[in-house]
Amino acid sequence: MMKRNFNHIGWDKYIDLTLFAVLLLFPLVGSLFRVEMMSKVVVFIIFALSLDILWGSAGLMNLGQAMFFGLGGYVLALSYATREGVPVFMSSFGVTQVPWFMQILQNTGIAIILGMVVPGMVAGLLGYFIFTSKVKGVFFNIITLSLASLIELFFTNQQKYTGGANGISGLPPMSIGAEPLSVLEHYYVILAMGLLVYLFCRWLTNSRFGMILKSVRENESRLQFLGFNPAAFKLVIFVISGMIAGLAGMLYIPINSFISPNNIGVVFSTSVLVWLAVGGRGNLTGAMLGAFMITWMESLLSEQFENVWLLLLGAAMLAVVLFFPKGLIGTLLDWQYNRKIERQINRPEFESEGLRLNGNEFATAKGKV
Fold first, then answer.
1. Mean pLDDT of 89-111
2. What phi, psi does 176 have (nearest 5°)?
3. pTM (two decimals)
4. Pair 89, 74: CB distance under 8 Å
């Protein structure tokens, strides 16, 4: 009985457990430098999950997902920068006091809340106009891509308030009270947040709401015929996706101690798309594995092959996309599903039932596997 129960568990769940076990135990074997790097990997896993629940579940490929990541990051960065008064990048432009619209960010607790609320509000406003206007497909992609470029340009031009192309640097590490967290403590805080986000996304995609989202992806017109409003479901998941991306952006700030318009624009948005393309979308595991693998490959290849690491990384990603068009995890789950169906067809009771069918029908059913 226990073996049968384990057989019903998809291999993606085993990979999830293994991945989180590796993340949990990594500080026992890794140096502080590698632990700090792994903190960044966990942040990118959260960011990848934010897109997977949108693209993988609802079929909405957001080409500007980094705008939500960057908005969350900038909110917390401005909070840190203005905590002790006017920062250097503002005073160099003659600003003598913190602007009124930034004074609320001097309260770190409020800034953390706004770091998720602001991306959610931007996603809600954008999604309302897009989805109520029934914009879909490539037009949705173009709008999100254009908006990401526009926000990146806006933050670059507002040098007085955002640091411009130079960004905001010298940001402090995460702290509880007056004491900053150590690298190890910081890592486990981020890992706990990553686990909570994963459990939330897993619950969301397996819920009735998640099932309806998959119906939106597969056949929106039929769902509308059944009395549902697809625009409302797409709007809700767009807002949730934006808020999770904003959370990832905030967690990124204490690790990197720096943020710039590059973290809010098209290039970074493309990176998360590649993670999902390599790992596979629509199952959460592929998003996490893609972010994990590519981030580590970037680091290790750049250390070993300074001049050609980009070519090697590009060749590896191209090979995965060519030979595994559904991503590594997507291909694995397809293979597992086909094996399960084949075992069911080859069971003796199915064979005896099939003998009572027309021979051609049985052969056709078996050949579809």
1. 88
2. -120, 110
3. 0.88
4. no
